[in-house]
Design goal:
The protein is mainly alpha-helical. It starts with 10 loop residues before the first helix and ends with a helix. Helix content is 76%, strand content 2%. A hairpin with a 5-residue loop joins β1 and β2.
């Protein structure tokens, strides 16, 4: 897109191009202003990072909403979207975006109810997705479309196994993840926005969906490493919904879950080895190994979707089975992750970045230790 003449681009592509360069300019200006304040107005600089992050979150949400609207309008005009099937997904996505924005403000002004709000919002979204799946199953078999009952059951089983694996890994290896706060939400919004912007810079784009991008997964991986894999998985799921808006391949609710929230939610597992004691002194090794686990789960998610939903194009049917084609086609995920890991290794080589990681880790450790200390103090008072 960025190599084509600007006059030949669609309205959406022109807006995305302008938004990318505008975002780069905003980031550069923000860094310069921060450096100047730190040197000449240190008292003002004390509040600058928090205010800058809040403004960045609002800016990111505004840009994404604008791009979503233009992309949807483009696909509807081209006849790519079946509105009766697509509208429920858009409604769920809208609820999710509203929930994220509401969680941001609640974490800032009412942090004591932040955790409860997140649980309620997750339950509402989960019920909505379940209802969408049930309706789709009824429509599928009433219309006599596609798979046999056995194939459909396999699709649901494999999807459940992948979800279970991601959740189990997040629960087991994410025990030290601190509670959700405004800082974490703001960082999440910025990292998601950065990943979304980078996803438009593509080295390769495949005909049936999927692309190799310019390290678009790196901000999500860094966020997971900084704030824990549970938050990382949540950020990945949100990013998956945004990827759906960017390229809405929608054939079945389970395909939607596999190719978007599940596949990209797995990227949040990039920090899975961070708390492994043997690797504590080797953050780059932790990052690389976590990236490998994340990409394997993402790859398997795409493969399952490809086997049960997309099948094999007619021109390749004579050479490949459905399973073989899905494994081969979705190997693009490894190239995409390899670029992100390579860029991440260069990032981890920066002393300033390592200092940032240390400061965030110290801050989150302090917040995690504070409730425990309060609890101990309360128990001691009761005993007395």
């Amino acid at each position: 897109m960025f190599t084509d003449p600007f006059s030949e681009l669609s309205v959406f592509e022109r807006t995305a191009t302008i938004a990318l360069y505008l975002t780069v300019a905003v980031i550069v200006i923000g860094i310069v202003v921060g450096l100047l304040l730190k040197k000449f107005r240190p008292a003002v600089y004390a509040e600058y990072p928090k205010r800058a992050m809040s403004l960045a979150a609002g800016y990111a949400i505004g840009i994404m909403a604008c791009l979503m609207y233009l992309k949807l309008d483009e696909y509807i005009a081209d006849g790519y979207i079946d509105l009766p099937t697509f509208i429920p997904v858009v409604v769920i996505l809208g609820v999710m975006i509203i929930a994220v924005v509401a969680a941001l403000f609640i974490a800032m002004f009412k942090p004591e109810i932040s955790s409860l709000f997140v649980k309620i919002a997750a339950a509402v979204i989960g019920v909505g997705i379940l209802a969408m799946i049930i309706v789709s199953m009824v429509n599928t078999y009433s219309g006599g479309i596609g798979r046999t009952v056995g194939e459909e059951v396999q699709l649901y089983i494999y999807t459940a196994v992948l979800i279970g694996a991601i959740v189990a890994l997040a629960l087991v290896f994410g025990k030290k993840t601190p509670p959700l706060d405004s800082k974490g939400i703001v960082y999440a919004a910025v990292c998601i926005a950065m990943s979304f912007a980078l996803s438009y810079i593509r080295f390769l784009e495949l005909l049936q969906g999927g692309s190799v991008t310019f390290a678009s997964l790196l901000p999500l991986m860094v966020f997971s490493y900084m704030f824990g894999i549970r938050k990382g998985v949540m950020a990945g799921v949100i990013y998956g919904f945004l990827q759906f808006i960017q390229a809405p391949w929608f054939y079945h609710p389970m395909q939607f879950l596999l190719d978007y929230p599940i596949a990209f939610g797995a990227i949040g597992l990039a920090a899975i080895f961070k708390e492994i004691g043997v690797l504590k002194k080797y953050p780059v090794v932790q990052f690389v190994l976590g990236g490998i686990v994340a990409v394997i789960l993402r790859y398997l998610s795409h493969v399952v979707s490809g086997v049960f939903v997309f099948g094999v194009p007619d021109e390749y049917a004579a050479s490949y089975s459905v399973v073989a084609w899905s494994f081969l086609y979705n190997s693009f995920a490894f190239a995409d992750m390899a670029i992100a890991i390579a860029a991440g290794c260069m990032l981890f080589a920066s002393r300033s970045f390592r200092n940032l990681l240390d400061s965030v880790e110290a801050s989150t450790a302090k917040k995690t230790a504070a409730p425990a200390a309060e609890g101990s103090e309360k128990e001691g008072t009761e005993e007395a």
